[in-house]
Every structure is written in structure tokens, then in C-alpha cells.
Amino acid sequence: MIINKITVFLAIIFILSACTKAAKSDKKAIAKVKDSYLYRSDIDGLGSGLSPEDSATQVSLYIEKWAVDQIILEMAKSKVSNAENDKIDRLVESYRNSLLIAAFEEQSLKKELDTLVTAQQINDYYKANQDQYISGNEWMRCYFIKIKRTMPEIDKLRTWFKSDDKNDFEKLKQYCLSKQGINFVLDKLQWINLEKIAEMLPEKELDASKLTLDRSYDRTDDEFLYLFRVFELRERDSPIPITQVKDEIAKIILQQRSNEILQKIRKEASDKAKTGKVLEKY
Predict the structure, then answer these.
(1) Most buried in the list 4, 62, 247, 280, measured by CB within 10 Å?
(2) How many independent structural domains does the chain possess?
(3) Is residue 91 in some structural domain?
(4) d(CA 168, CA 9)
């Protein structure tokens, strides 16, 4: 047994090393069990990245497993009943047909599907389906900064935040980006869930009804300074802002287009079955 394993091991090393010399046929057999063959192309890439010894061991283990599988397969063929064998054949054929149909549908989608979804198409879908996007949450566009009171130039930060000068706003952004440990929202067009802002406040809550638009709020506690300015609010019964769901809507539109293409294929096949005299019922 040991001699046989050594022989197989040396044979594998010879086969692998031969690949770097003269080109060999991909149909060169490297193992055989009765009428079943294992070809060099079947182990292509196996053991790549390993040392020559480890690669050869990997191939040897693969061959041994393959041989065991072939023997068990022969045993199964002789023991499984004809009825069970016929059932397996039907399942294999059904699975093969499903794969062919799936491949055909995928090929059709690649050829016919328009993958460009415009902002206008997203907006149109959003307007027509706003009821689907009412989440029961409050949303806002705002500026928000939470910063430790011990940070340098804190008074300048306050002044920049409350200023309407563009240069001051740029100084504010650069300050927040250049320091560690600052929580901030400084994108005026970004919608953010009100609860996320509330979580960063000491009391962990925020009453939207008490907020005044475009007014700067300046609060402190023992550790932090809080700067807050709201530009727009959306109530709980309002739909989620389109910026939050535009990617989801784009996927829905693409899925709808895909379904239309597949339904067209099904309809063409159905019409052919009805009018092309290809369907015979018994």
C-alpha cells in the first residue's frame, strides 16, 4: 500500500512537471477506474500557489477522492432500482431544462434590457408611489455639530457656524474634517432621520414641533458643545425623501423592465403554442 502511494505521488509530480515542457493534450488521462477517466484538464489549477510538495499532495488527495466517488457510483448504479433511476433521470433532465431556460432568459435580458434609469424616471415613480414610502419617521435637512468643549478655537467654530458667509462655511467644514472625534452634518441637501440627531443630544430626544427653521441653536453641557440649524422638516405622515430611496427605486424600475421582457418571451411562446399547431393535447 505504501509503495503504491509513493508510486502515485511520483507519477503526479512527473505529470505536473511535464506541463512546463512540451505541450500535452488536455485529454491526457492521469487516472482510471474501470471505464471512467480523470484527465489532466480536470485538475487544472488545483494546488496553485502551494509549494511543489503540497501541490502534489493536493492532487493525490483529489485523485483518491475521485476514485472513491467512481467506485461508489458503480455500486449505486447496481443497487438503485430502475424506477428510482428513471426518477433521477427525469430530475436531471428537468434541472437541465431549467438551466437552459435561465441561460436563454439571461441572454435575452443582456441583449434587450435598457439599464439606464434617469432621474426623471425615478422622480415619476416616486410621485406615483409616495404612499409606499411613508415610514412614520421625521426627516430633516440641517447642519449639526457635536464637539468637545476642550477643542481648540471653539469660539471661532461658533462664529463660523452662525455666519452666512461662504468663506466662513468653508473654514467650518475644513475644521470639522481636520479634527478627530467631531460628529457633524454639513450637507444642506442631505436628508437625515431626526432620531439620529436626537441620539447625539444629552436628553436623547428632539421635539420637531419646537424647532424654528433657519435658526441656529447653540447648547452646551459639561462636556460638549452642540450647534444645530434646521432648513426643512418632514412630518411622520410624509413620504421618505426621494434621495433616501432613489437607489431602491432604480432597482425596482430595472426589475419591472426585466419582467416585461420575460413576460414578452412567455407570451410569444404561448401564442406559438396556441396558433402554431405545436401543442397537441391528449
Answers:
(1) 62
(2) 2
(3) no
(4) 74
Q: Where are the beta strands (DSSP E) in the chain?
A: 29-33, 36-39, 139-148, 183-185, 191-193, 216-220, 224-234
pLDDT in tens, the chain (282 residues): 433 443 343 344 444 444 433 334 457 898 999 889 999 888 888 888 889 898 899 999 999 999 999 999 999 988 989 899 899 999 999 999 999 999 999 999 999 999 999 999 999 999 999 999 998 899 999 999 999 999 999 999 999 999 999 999 999 999 999 999 999 999 999 999 999 999 999 888 899 888 999 998 999 999 999 999 999 999 999 999 999 999 999 999 999 999 999 999 999 998 888 886 777 777
- Do 150 and 225 lie in one domain? The reply is yes
Q: pTM score > 0.85 for this model?
A: no
**Amino acid sitting at position 42:** D
- Give the burial class of 32: count Cβ atoms within 10 A of its Cβ; 0-12 exposed, 13-18 middle, 19 or more buried: exposed
Residue 131 within a domain: no
Residue 180's domain comprises 137-234
Residue 73 belongs to a domain: yes
CATH of the domain at 200: 3.10.50
- 75 and 151 in a single domain? The answer is no
In-domain check, residue 184: yes
CA distances from 3 to 8, 26, 149, 169 (A): 9, 28, 78, 80
